[in-house]
Amino acid sequence: MSTDQTLQDLKPRRKGIYLLPNLLTTGCLFSGFYAIVAAIDKHFAPAGMAVFVAMIFDTLDGRIARATHTESAFGKEYDSLADMVAFGLAPAIVAYQWGVVRIAEFGHYWGRFGWLACFFYTVAAALRLARFNARAAGADKRYFEGLPSPSAAAIVAAFVWFSSEWREPGLAGLIAAFLVTASAGALMVSRFSYPSFKQFDLDRRIKFVYMLLVPLFFVLIAVDPPTMLLSMFATYAVSAPVLWAGRRIRRALRGAPTAGSS
Length: 262
Description:
Elements: H1 3-10, H2 19-40, H3 44-67, H4 73-103, H5 108-135, E1 143-145, H6 149-163, H7 170-188, E2 193-195, H8 208-223, H9 225-255
Antiparallel strand pairs: 1-2
């Protein structure tokens, strides 16, 4: 081996980051930032849309990193920080800007209730992301423990997007908004199991009739995006508690003594 080759091997390797997946993560971060700015400017429909754009970027960055074998420790940390902004901070500020000013008109304590609901959501998102990172290595990939933060953000963003068409939602509508925000936060830190759909095989053959559902899905969203998106993610959010309650009831019925037994 030549002396030049030996010196080249001894040189420290240049460190860097993978461009494509981290560029997509930056898109997620920018979408969350845009949602915050739009909410501050009282543009709530674009703010809600931006959260869903962030979800698209968040879905793509991980898949692209795995497909191109460009996963890295830096990318995972950056993705977690971007998720905190896009799915933890942005939805809370969007809900706060939309509702707290209005609900405060009904009394000081109503305003404080809205403020605390939004802060609780943010704390829950941070705890959810921290728990996910701490348990990612040994977790069952088929399920999430607690509602995923993007899904929780989608519920809050879709509700505000849907509600932004109300000029005067009234006290009941404002209370509903903050109950939805707080409930989404509580589900994030819950122990309920949610399917992750990570095991879905895109290469698997399916029946042709199932393929017809894909354009129907997009048509329904295009007709009324906030209503359809809110319905979809709310159904996903309540599915785990409903299934858990159903299992508890069935176990209780099986263990109950029959009529006439001693």
